[in-house]
Every structure is written in C-alpha cells, then in structure tokens.
Amino acid sequence: MKNSTTKSEDYQDGKLRVVELFAGVGGFRLGLCGTKKRPLNGYSVVWANQWEPSTQKQHAADIYRACFHGGKEPNAFFNEDINKVVNLTKLPIPNHNLLVGGFPCQDYSVARTLSHAAGIEGKKGILWWAIHKILERKGTHSPEYLMLENVDRLLKSPAKQRGRDFGIILASLANLEYAVEWRVINAADYGMPQRRRRTFILAYKNNSPIYRQLVKRRSDIAWLTKDGVIAKGFPVSYKENRIRFKEELGYELTDTSDKFQYPFENTGLMVGHSFITIKTIPIQEKLNTLGSKLLAENEVLEEYFIPEKDMKRWHYLKGAKRDKRTAKNGFEYEYKEGPVAFPDSPDKPSRTIITGEGGSTPARHKHVVLTKSGRYRRLMPIELERLSMFPDRHTELPGIGDQKRAFFMGNALVVGVIEKLGRSLLKQHRDASKDFGQRT
Q: What percent of the chain is predicted at pLDDT more than 70?
C-alpha cells in the first residue's frame, strides 16, 4: 500500500477522532478528553462500544451514557456485542484517527478456515479478532494509531508456549502495515496512587506522521528509551549490557500460532516483521499515596467498618499460611502463601484493585485501612475511584450498588496513564506532521 496523507475529513474541529472499544465506564475517554470541569484538548470520541456478555443489565453502559451523553442513547454509542457489530453488512464505525481499548487477555491461537484463502480466525481470543476485523474492513481508511491495554502477563502467555499470544498480535498488526511499540507500565512508578502493572501497546499505520518519524529513528534503543511516544511520557533507564539482535515474525499467523515462542521483555518495538525487546527500568516520580485519597473518618458509612467479630477471620486471610489441604481427588498437599499488609499502608500507593474488592465478606485481596480512632474499615467506592484517578462519584447511579461500583474499578485502568500517553502521542503526532507537511 502506498503512503497517503491524512484527509481533512478525518479530523473533527482540529482534533484526532477516537473510537473507544470495550469502553467500560470510560477510562480511555477520561484520559484523552478529560471532564467538563477539566477538559483536555486534542481528541474527540466519535464512536464507542460497551457490552458485557455475562449479565443482562448493562450497568457499565448505563454509566457511560450518563457521564458522557446525558443518559441518552446516541448513534455514536453502541451497547451491543462488538462481534456482531463488526460483521454487519454496513460497518457503523466512522472513520477515525485513533482506536483505543482494553481488550481481555484470552487465548489468541488461530485456526485455518475451511477455505484457507479466506484467512484466519481466532479460536478463543475473539475480542482481539474484532479489533483485527475493524482494521481489515476499514482498509485504506484504517486508523493511523492504536492505543491498547492488557494485563502484563500477555507478554508471557500461554504457559506452554511463552510469548505466542503476543507474537500473534504483533504479526497480525505487521500484516496490516502497522509498526508497534509496547511497555509494561506500573502506574505507581509515575506518581499515581495505585500499583497497577499493565501492558500498553501503541501502533502506527504506515501512512501516519509518527510512522514516518519512526522509520527515520536514530536507533531502536533510542526510540524505546528517549525518542518514542511511550519513552517521552514515561521516562526509563536502560542498563542491559547486551543488546539483542532483531528477531523476525512470520507472515502466516497459523505458523506463528503453532510454532512461535519468545521471552518478550517489558519494552519493545516492531517495524515491518522485525522486532527488538529490551528490559527498561522506570525513572520513578514522587509517590502518590493511598492515604491521600481517603475520606475523613466521619464521612465513612458505618457499614464499611469491620465488626470486631470478623477480625479473626480477616487476620487469618491476610496472614501467612502453611496448611494441609486435600484436593477433590483425595490428593493431600501443603498450601503455602505469604502475608499481605494488614492494614494497608497509607504512606504507599494502594495495591492493585481487583473486581472482587466490594462487599463486606472478609477476603485476602480487599483493602483495609486503620482509622485514627483505631477502627479498621474497607474502602468506599469514591476512594476506589480516586485510586483509579476517576472523578468522584463517576460510577454513582441509581440502581447500581456499591459492590458493582467496586467491580468497575477492578476492571478499570488508571486514567492518569492514558492521559500521559495521550499527551505524548498528540505532541509527537503534531511535531511529526509539521516535519512532513501534513495537517495537524
């Protein structure tokens, strides 16, 4: 495909047009566009999709509509299964510059179709292939940029063929003429109040300004540590003595699925079908702590304080264990696990919030803090929102309970990471556009 300049109709009011997939309660949108009280410039969400297949009530979609569309059902928001949407005869997704989304970590293995000429299909990682199909169907109008998020273990999965799943994603994007860079980022390393490690993937189409800048790079290492979009937003150092030679990915995704295995590091770059991966070390910013996000004790509902009768169970679950246990098949084994901080330190970033954070039942993974009066308590939804850098009461809506609100924050990303990435991507896009005489 020949490189082409960006068309003026692909912009809206001079802003990059964004499509948000797997939108949840709008973390990507908040990071790129901000709020009414604190708007950010440079991006405009023109279409979004949110669908929760495991429940009849679409609470996340309700919150998204309430926060961004005044509770209405606009044409720009689809609360439908994305796999059905991408197979509609007329694709309802408008042309856009940036596609974003936190797609689930699944099995991305592929199988040949009955007619191999028709291409490949995913066995289990169906949501990744929905992204792939959008890019395919858009063709010459596919977005210039992708910004995707996944769990950090994506780089190592599956256990029996390490790196295969990520290799399939890279190879499929290379086949669609995207260059890709990635980094595992812990939000707490960069001044955010939650320890949350996630893999962030940025991809640049071969007709985009940043791609043109990328191919003129000084070196791969310089791009990954100083010059690239991620490096400028999230500074790192690099101390590895050995620089790896470039590795190659094949064009046939079925071959990648069957044979590819590689120990990806936390940082990397792919151009064409060649990639390099290195281990980088974050240059840490000042800590943002759990304690700075807590409500005053008199603002906490009584139901969030832990009854004295439950304290023994909390101590047991949080403590170190060495128990004799018996499996369902009768096999006896020794179960071991180390202790978890109890209570959680107010002087450090919080631990990662998970979807089971809500509810009063004692659990090892839930956060517990000690108040000035000496009482232990769980975290309220507004505090969980603050730890994920959402606006206060973002998920508060009639008919949605506190446990569900906690679930949303367990599923959410840390908004500040997206804001940093968004600012860096926008600046690099505008700078590169000026260099190559394209519209910004």
A: 90
Reply yes or no on whether the pLDDT at 12 is more than 80.
no
| Number of domains into which the chain is organized | 1
What is the predicted pLDDT for the residue at 435? Answer: 80
Among the options 40, 76, 105, 397, which is catalytic? Answer: 105
**Is 105 tagged catalytic?**
yes
Of 105, 128, 130, 102, nearest in space to 23 by CA: 102
Q: What backbone torsions phi and psi does residue 101 show, to the nearest 5 degrees?
A: 170, 150
Specify if 194 maps to a domain. no
Mean pLDDT across 240-264:
85
Is the pLDDT score of 382 beyond 70? yes
Please state the three-class secondary structure of the chain as a single string: CCCCCCCHHHEECCEEEEEEECCCCCHHHHHHHECCCCECCCEEEEEEECCCCCCCCCHHHHHHHHHHCCCCCCCCEECCCHHHHCCCCCCCCCCCCEEEEECCCCCCCEEECCCHHHCEEECCCHHHHHHHHHHHHHHHHCCCEEEEEEEHHHHHCCCCCCCHHHHHHHHHHHHCCEEEEEEEEEHHHHCCCECCEEEEEEEEECCCHHHHHHHCCCCHHHHHHHHCHHHHHCCEECCCCCCCCCEECCCCHHHHHHHCCCCCCCEEEEECCEEEEECCEECCCCCCCCHHHCCCHHHCCHHHECCHHHHHHHHHHHCCEEEEEECCCCCEEEEEECCCCCCCCCCCCECCCCCCCCCCCCCCCCCEEECCCCCEEECCHHHHHHHCCCCCCCCCCCCCCHHHHHHHHHHCCCHHHHHHHHHHHHHHHHHHHHHCCCCC
Flag whether 318 is in a domain.
yes
Handedness of CA 63, 69, 75, 77 (dihedral sign): negative
Domain that holds residue 301: 291-380
* Structural domain includes residue 321: yes
